[in-house]
Amino acid sequence: MTACPGDDLLVRARGLRKYYRSHEAVRGVDLQVGRGESLGLLGPNGAGKSSLMRMIGCVSPSDGGELRVLGLDPRTSGPRIRGRLGVVPQYDGLDTELTARQNIYAYGRCFGMSRRNARERTTELLAFARLTDRADAEVETLSGGMRRRLVIARALVNSPHLLILDEPTTGLDPEARRIIWQQLRRLKKEGVSLIVTSHYMDEVEELCDRVQVLDRGRTVAEGTPSALTARHAAPEVVEIRLTGGGGQDLRDALAGLASHIEEVQDRLLVYTDEPERVFARLRDRGIRPDTSLVRKGSLDDVFLRLTGRALTG
Questions:
Q1: What's the whole-number average pLDDT of the chain?
Q2: Could you tell me which PROSITE patterns the record lists for this protein (predicted)?
């Protein structure tokens, strides 16, 4: 990938705002992304993630604050910025009547590449996406994982400095997800910066150097995945299922043994560094959960703690 001119800060936002009529979707967000860095944006529906990514992608103007992408102002240099961005949308948008090769080639021509350069770049990207042997297959015959790899390859046709990915592996099987993760890690090593939204916390932990959690248009936390988990979750979580309610009885029984307790649907999540004492207390009180397990704290727990909502499920 070609080097990006200027400093190593590819995206810088300060006090960024976005309105839709009377609704303020983004409320004074600060954000930055460095060269070769991957930033994960987490948030429930309506948190402002899509609005933020559309502003960074120069397809929607900001209504306040300061934004620089690749050192340029989107208000005056939108086309120049878009020419150096890659975008992987949540929904593929591939032309199903064309082959894999034709989808990439046509995209390259849209960027003004010569026929020769578009053909050469298409061949490179088919190899990158592990699709050389399916290059002349029509898109509708490709598996879901192949299609997502093709969309990523298409987004790289212009050798972008910054790649914006919206739910890159939603609906894919574990093996297909691992292949895409491997491709994205390779891009990071080549100096490409990533902005990723995902509902898969293992994906965020796998790909992202930093995470920014949004809720109701504001940043509520940011940091590395491990730092956020240490700060807002607990070393271990006891998950308890008890049919017929009884959540308050459990809370009373476990008073003093947990940093906090969350109730999610039919589960009680007990955040503690003493899981053995939690189970001993339940036995002493004669409380017998339907099921129980102990697991490590995760970004799912951070998200639930900060927003009051589960990211998945």
A1: 89
A2: ABC_TRANSPORTER_1, ABC_TRANSPORTER_2
